[in-house]
Amino acid sequence: MTFWRFQEPSLKHLHDMTHLCLGIDPDGALAADEQRRKDKPAILKNFKEEVMDFVREAAYLSGSGQFSNQKLDQALTIARQAMDQAREDLQWSER
Predict the structure, then answer these.
(1) CA gyration radius for the chain?
(2) pLDDT tens for each residue of 50-59
């Protein structure tokens, strides 16, 4: 028999030992991760609703005057810049 035969196939004990060495409750870390994964769809759904509300308001508030399309395009340019910046921030935080 070898040493590795006595090891758990899931290696969960390594996860537990690592967290305990760092002073983190292993079960709490897993529960927190699970909760974050459950919360993400709700956060994204709320954002989608906000974006749709913005689109409706932008269409209404831009009006129908002579320069309404220019006014709308300027507002959407600002919104696109903000979304691009947010995308860059998300990509940077993953690295």
Answers:
(1) 24
(2) 999 999 999 9
